[in-house]
Amino acid sequence: MKKLMKTFLNHRAKEDPYNLPWTARQLLDGIPSSVCSDPCPKGYRRAAIQGQKICCFDCLPCSEGEILNPNDDSECLKCPEDKWPDSRKEECLPKLIQFLSYEETLGSALACISVLFCLLTYSVFCLFIIKRKTPIVKANNRDLSYLLLISLMFGFMCSLAFIGRPNRIMCMIRQVMFAVIFSLCVSTILAKTITVVMIFSATNPDSKLKKLVGLRIPIYIVPVCTMVQVILCIVWLTTDAPFAEFNMEAEIGIIVIECNEGSRVLFASVLGYMGLLASVSLFVAFLARKLPDTFNETKFIAFSMLVFASVWVTFIPAYLSTKGKQTVAVEIFAILSSSAGCLFCIFSPKCYTILLHPEMNSKENITGRNTRNREKRF
To answer: What is the arrangement of strands in the sheet containing 243-251, beginning at the earlier edge strand?
Structure first.
């Protein structure tokens, strides 16, 4: 076979001696090939085989985040922290910068949902202003209802601060705004719940809470509870405020710009205080759920606080298990869903009565129901 191959190559060499491959010339000249291993492909380095000749080697891929040394194909070089190898591992390219922006589908969708819920809350607020003289709006302190609707509007809008490229100012604003607004919202719900309890106590001559009605305690609950959260936020901002940072390790080949909470102890204190307010509101509303209130205010408040607490309890594992911009999306979703839960649970029954059953929104109807409730009780 080898003899036939040489005869064929000799014939080719006579016809076209300058177009003969170099390996064929080696075969004709009797020079053996010194290559026992093929050259390594791009992105692979040469690794000598122990006990073998230098021309025999293995090809090992460069590790993650490394490229082949252009001056020495037996070693790989690690890319800088802000760069990542290309697909062939020949060059270090700048990493992609990622954050939740308005230009992408997820960011724009969350922004649209926030605006729509804000407009819906504003519509309910306008409806309550128009029907401010009706019994269902007057019930359980209409001023607190106005304040709750305004805080919910700001709650929906504060989620917009979480969308866009983070910087130091925005990181401080978004966290403080979120904490203060939700503390105002929950403290208002707590004040509404205590108002229901005190109103019922005023109609019951045997109640020990009747003496507290004249003190107008619900008026002081909102500013005092909110001021405590404001003080916590001031301490947080002056000692170790949130700041923007470049997270190189969240996702492979991507730089995630995110907000670092700064002091985790103060951040946990802010969230813990908000959770304490929600727990107290849920506890008081649950105890008062069977009071003979015409519009079942305490039942709706208890259910809204149950939804609120459920959202934020499930938020914690979801927040810890996500990375990159999905973490911000989870936080925005928790803000929107908890605010929407409070809006629908507390105000949708009242809007239903005002718009679809106006005959129930009368003083005579309320008086008749209260009378029947008192007769049943006694």
So the answer is: 96-98, 254-260, 243-251
Query: What pLDDT band is residue 136 in, cutting at 50, 70 and 90?
Result: confident
**Per-residue pLDDT band at 2 (split at 50, 70, 90):** very low
Q: What residues does 68 pair with on adjacent strands?
A: 76
Inter-residue contact 346 to 303 (CB < 8 Å): no
Contact 336, 118 (CB under 8 A): no
Find the helix packing angle between 168-203 and 297-321, rounded to 10°: 150
On the 0-12 / 13-18 / 19+ scale of CB atoms within 10 A, 276 is: middle
Q: What pTM was computed for the model?
A: 0.75
* Residue 303 CB contacts under 8 Å (≥ 6 apart), including other chains: 345
* Residue 97, beta-bridge partner list: 255
316 falls in which pLDDT band (50, 70, 90)? confident
The rounded distance, in Å, linking the Cα atoms of 134 and 131 is 6
Residues 6+ away with beta carbon under 8 Å from 105: none
Strand partners, 139: none
Across 58-86, b (16+ Cβ under 10 Å) vs e yields eeeebeebbbbeeeebeebeebeeebbbe
Q: Say how far apart CA 279 and CA 35 lie, in whole Å.
A: 76
Residues of the chain with CATH 1.20.1070: 98-371
Residue 122 sits at the vertex; the CA angle it makes with 131 and 136, to the nearest 5 degrees, is: 30
DSSP-based three-state secondary structure for 263: coil
Q: How many CB atoms lie within 10 A of CB 237?
A: 16
- Name the nearest CA neighbour of 237 among 162, 171, 156, 310: 171
CATH of 98-371, one of 1.20.1070, 3.20.20, 3.40.50, 1.10.10: 1.20.1070
Burial 191-204 (b: 16+ CB within 10 A, else e): bbbbbbbbbbbeee
Please report which helix (H) or strand (E) contains residue 83, including its range: strand 83-85
| pLDDT at residue 378, rounded to an integer | 35
Given this model, what pLDDT does residue 25 score? 45
Q: Are 173 and 161 in contact (CB under 8 A)?
A: yes
Q: How far apart are CA 307 and CA 340, in angstroms?
A: 10
Tokens of 186: 């929950």
